[in-house]
């Protein structure tokens, strides 16, 4: 299973810094870094909602699924 987190893409589109996003969402820089680097094992809906609100986007803009075959090839 390959879940891709596209926070960097949305940050670039919104011209927002990681620091600004952490302040708006209310999570630590370390936790946001874990999430955006694809190392997180879970995300709370409240956190996803706060990220979407801060970036003015939909959850599908942040989280993407690619099958193992598509991710490898």
From TrEMBL:
Pfam family, one: HTH_26
Taxonomic superkingdom: Bacteria
CDD domains: HTH_XRE
Segments forming domain HTH cro/C1-type: 13-62
InterPro entries the record matches: Cro/C1-type_HTH (IPR001387), Lambda_DNA-bd_dom_sf (IPR010982)
SMART domains given in the database record: HTH_XRE (SM00530)
Protein name: Transcriptional regulator
Native species: Dictyobacter formicarum
């Amino acid at each position: 299973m390959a879940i891709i987190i596209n926070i960097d893409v949305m940050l670039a589109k919104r011209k927002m810094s990681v620091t600004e996003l952490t302040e708006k969402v209310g999570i630590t820089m370390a936790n946001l870094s874990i999430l955006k680097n694809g190392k997180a094992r879970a995300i709370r809906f409240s956190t996803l909602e706060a990220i979407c609100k801060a970036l003015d986007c939909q959850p599908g803009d942040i989280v993407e699924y690619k099958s193992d075959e598509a991710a490898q090839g």
